[in-house]
Specification:
The protein is mainly alpha-helical and 231 residues long. It has a single domain, classed as Intergrase catalytic core (hpI Integrase, Chain A). 50% of the residues lie in helices and 6% in strands. It contains 9 helices and 5 strands. The strands form 2 sheets. The protein has a 3-stranded antiparallel beta sheet, with no helix packed on it. The protein has a two-stranded antiparallel ribbon with strand order 3-4. The N and C termini lie far apart (70 Å). This is Integrase. Keywords: DNA recombination.
Amino acid sequence: MQVIDHNPARDVIVPRKQQREKEKIKYFDKQELKEFLNYLDTLDQSSYKNLFDIVLYKTLLATGCRIGELLALEWSDIDLNKGTISITKTINRYNETNSPKSKSGIRDIEIDKATILMLKQYKKRQQIQSWQLGRSETVVFSVFTERYVETNALRKRLKKHFKAAGVSDIGFHGFRHTHATIMLYSGIEPKDLQYRLGHSNISMTLDTYVHATKEGAKKAVSIFEAAINNL
């Protein structure tokens, strides 16, 4: 057996571990959001189905809630006088209610005046519709035929609306991403956004739901220029 006078492993170049590509987050920028909201305003609201969709989408955008959290809502969870929505449960894939993912998922969300008014008007319309069917409805987003609406059916309708509006298909979760982006770049404190979204830690909020935008990039340049000029 011969003794090797050097270690051949020293000459081996270990390939660098490739970074796993992060899944691209889907959300509306300002222009697409404006186009989608304008499209919703053109829908015939005498159709209860259209009204249902409009209120659902706008409430998702206004709160940043997950779709399962909104579909689990009952009217007793919403205080239209104080302007708060209490999130205490969610709908799972089997159309059953579960508690939120973590304790931080249980939260009260404040809503704006326009959303309060929209929900009040929608509630009146729902009551009329349910009375005509001989029902008394407690679930906010009800289709009257079952306690909780089937999410897959709503996804198909959402895709049709995106196509008709001529905007990107961001899915239901894209409304949540859009809300988070708008709130952050409008100046909300990250900890306040964390609470609003129901995240257990701040890193989840910043890493997952906050994205670089064209507006943010321009703002960053302006901040740098101002800092340099003030030296």
